[in-house]
Specification:
Six copies of one chain form a homohexamer.
Chain A (H helix, E strand, L loop, with lengths): L22 H7 L1 H20 L2 H13 L7 H14 L3 H13 L4 H15 L4 H14 L2
Helix pairs in contact in A: 1-2, 4-5, 4-6, 5-7, 6-7
């Protein structure tokens, strides 16, 4: 028998953020973003096909964590960006930098977020910072 | 609006494992286990009271990851033990070592699991190994 | 000879944030915060006494990373909170949760930030989440 | 003078596991596995040539950690898989997923093991999970 | 059957370093060192009693990694200190700081080593740095 | 207003180390080094162009951490190598191995340093060790 979570607070406070730019627009602007998103889609198809219950549950929670709530969607993507940079995952950094861009984050906001990750995470973050700046250069050209 | 996960495979393959020992029995046997579980309960009450939607979802997934399935519950707890030791979290190590014990894992099985964590994770795991052995000493006395 | 950094953009865009609550008020409200800040002060005195050039430089950069800029101070503290929770450092979590509180972050904003850390960092973050909630309980009582 | 370890328990309880599939069979089945194993062999030749005492000792311990003992070889490879996924090393994930396959682990067992790593390690594990699924897709085709 | 490592280079180049101070002297000088070493000994007794083959092998390799060789023992302890501080393990930091002290490292050498760890590892290292400075304060009083 | 650090110890004890080999010589000797340094330069140009205040400050501290002081420059690069290997960053490993080589570190000194990282960091370091040995093979040919 599967454990069930009890009744929850009404979720009126969680909603999809409004994107200023589509994924397609991002891919037209940045070659790095295009390659990243293409590979991600191809590999995710594989995961989807496997139809693993727990993976899907996890993806669902992951999606929910970035919905608009007490904090705006843009801020949450910047939180995701910092988490990704601290834990040093290029794919995750690209993902959240693209989403933050699509939600209207300025380049300065992205850089300041990455700076928190740099100071908290140290010089080991620098190679990832360099690759992130390459993406930012294309996105904000 | 909250994103929903699509239809899932019937969960007949997930069920609660059968514990050989209750949490109470563990607490009577080991003072370390008792202190750990008491603190954990006290702090979790706090989290429960906050009634945060996403935290509850996460706890639910976490619970599901260790249910009986293709792998027996005991093996999954040993997987959790190795993950916890590699990532160096005493609380998590204690939690999974206790659950593995309750599901009938022998001391040798626990030690071999910890050895995988030691070799993969290196000497930085050793201080946690020492504290884990202190718990094992009490559990398997 | 010491390497020097070249001329920089005028730093008019960096300024100290305005705190709604003093450190003293926080310490009166929360016993956990008081103990944490007392220990931190005592140990930092030791570090200050050593007067190490590079440590001081690092502390200075660290201070600068959280100043008001393109992003408000409160948001930066929440970024610091997520970074700290992902990298699983209780001291750092306490520090940024307290600063975020002093800058007016609501409990819901703190919880949503911690949720990003939880989803990105996984269940290994949970023991730290529990201790963070204990602090939040006192701060937002 | 080199420090020596004292007398040890007779090692009757450690023996090589029996593989159901050879490395060659794996390489014929999966292009990803072939590329990974080829690169690994080429780079290991380099390390072998250096003939470093401590590296060889470490490799020997590493080998011993996965021998049959209180736990079967297959389970130990799944423990190694979880450790590798938690610590986010693609090479290590590929290595243990291949070995688990060669020892008869089913795809479901591999997925459930990866799920423990996903829940313990968080979404930062997802990019590695995607690449692992790509390998599983080829191995279990 | 247990895998054996092949013939090795003669180990003439590995020898025990010569300590300037005994562990006892350190414990008389520093209360922090005394508490740490006492707890470590107590917990290690537990591990020794278990007589686990692989743990003993690992302890042996660990011992060998810090023997005099191409690099002096003191330098190796400082390497161990940096590794420990980067990976944020107080026990390991204390252990290597004490050994470096016993091998004649000056306080400035310890601080410069910790600075490398601070810059590489970031502000998340700071709480460990503070506790390390507390120990250094006692050792070099 | 920007926070300023107070007066510091005179920095007479920090000076640029004397390199035995230029970066150009390294690039002629090793194709791996050449590719790494070319990419690094290209990406750093991007970062430089952004002219971010805090990134420049961080780069400056980073530079200072490896200057000659109580410890020689070569030793500090080996400390950086161990930190990089423990935290598992190929770019950082390459960077410090190249600098250590340029400052006269022998291959045996590099291997012994990597061994400390291997033992502290565990088998998860091995894939990085293999790639480091490939570079060492070219540098010390």
């Amino acid at each position: 028998m599967l454990a069930e979570h009890p009744a929850e607070r009404p979720n009126q406070d969680r909603k999809e953020p409004t994107y200023l730019f589509s994924e397609k627009q991002v891919m037209e602007k940045s070659e790095i973003a295009r390659r990243f998103l293409d590979t991600r889609t191809r590999l995710n198809n594989n995961v989807d096909k496997a139809n693993n219950f727990l993976v899907k549950r996890f993806y669902n929670i992951d999606h929910n964590a970035y919905l608009e709530g007490a904090l705006p969607g843009k801020t949450k993507e910047l939180l995701g960006l910092v988490a990704s940079a601290c834990l040093r995952c290029d794919d995750c950094i690209f993902y959240h930098a693209i989403h933050a861009y699509r939600l209207g984050a300025t380049r300065a906001e992205q850089e300041e977020s990455l700076n928190v990750a740099l100071v908290v995470g140290g010089s080991i973050v620098v190679p990832h910072l360099r690759r992130a700046y390459e993406l930012l250069e294309e996105l904000y050209a």
